[in-house]
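Problem: given the chain below (213 residues), write out its structure.
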Amino acid sequence: MQDKANQLFKSFSICRENAYDGKLVGLCNITTAGDRLLLTGTPVRFSEYLATRNPHHPASWPRANPVGTTAILITQDNYILTSVRSLNAEQNPGGLYFVGGFSEYDAQDNFDLFTNARRETEEETGLQLSDILSEITLCGIDYDSIYPHPEAFFIIRLTILSSDLQEHLQHHHHEEAERFELLSKASFLSLTESDRLLTWSFLTGRQLIADTI
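Solution.
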């Protein structure tokens, strides 16, 4: 299996110079202690995820299950930030998404999903959240059965207006996003798959936050 993982990553990275086969957080278990959610993780590599993410992957080899984070940014005037995936993206090309990525361990071999959600948001949008963050909330964890792995969904409320965010994003580019779009609450809730190519992450995230926005 490791040879397969290495071969898949080699093919994956041919056209992706920033491809990273680093140490991700593989989810082992979720428990609760009072009002706290406790996650147990184990180090996995992205190449191991490539080798085990097929929906029909045999049970004889456990899935890598890296924990993804999806951040749903909401401006002060209640516009929701979405991204349109690049047509060159390996997953969901052209699909409507938010921002996010996989969780990683820090230098002390610890992980924090909130920290990872903030990091991914800053990397993909160029924002400095310390200046504009009002609140960050974990709103749910679900399992992506299309590209199998667990995904944690966060609402990140900002102190800036949609016009200010739009102005900032006009000067920022991320390789996985063809463009960013700010949607009103009505547009966000009414989009259907006949209107746009909606990713699993978009549909799941929208369902999780529909009653809170």
